[in-house]
Amino acid sequence: MRDLAEVRVDIDKVDKEILNLFQKRMELACQVAEYKIATGKKVYDKAREDEKLDKLSSYVDDAFSEQAVRELYTQIMSISRKKQFAILRDNGVSFDTGFTKVEEYDFSDAVVCFQGVQGAYSQLAMMAFFGENIKDSFHVDLWRDAMDAINDGRADYAV
Question: In what order do the strands lie in the sheet with 136-140?
């Protein structure tokens, strides 16, 4: 059996290689962003990402590694998209996110439950987020009770 310190030295070397390759990949993501600026192509291409995940996960032999590869590359592609969006934004390219900014929510008909006793931090958090303009609030003993209150329709929100 190898000494743990020796194994960790090797892990550090591999991590440095991975980091260098990650930086190269992010440089390529910048080039992709430049192409997308020039062509007007969208940043997110679900079909391309799904195809890439399928191909990469096919290179490993067991179910654990397959899932791990999918999780790893899902995160890498997400980071790449963030970088691309930032570059597009910095170059004055606007894009529709599909989201509408909401300045204020109307909770006047909301019933909110919070886990804990009266005066608990969860009640303070509820008040800080929802404010005074709610229909009603009540406390429950357990987090499970809060989820049950949502499922049963006794509460609209839980904290």
Answer: 136-140, 111-115, 157-158
Q: Say whether 154 sits in a helix, a strand or coil.
A: coil
Residues 25 and 76 sit within 8 Å (Cβ to Cβ)? yes
Residue 54: enclosing H or E segment and its boundaries?
Answer: helix 46-57
Query: What's the CATH fold of domain 4-90?
Result: Chorismate Mutase Domain, subunit A (1.20.59)
Q: Which residue type is seen at 34?
A: E
The CA-atom distances, in angstroms, between 32 and each of 22, 36, 94, 100 are 15, 6, 17, 27
Taking only the tens place, the pLDDT of each residue in 99-139 is: 888 888 899 999 999 999 999 999 999 999 998 889 999 99
Tell me the whole-structure pTM to 2 decimals.
0.62
Nearest to 29 by CA among 58, 49, 55, 47: 49
pLDDT at 97 > cutoff 80: no
Mean pLDDT of 54-58: 97
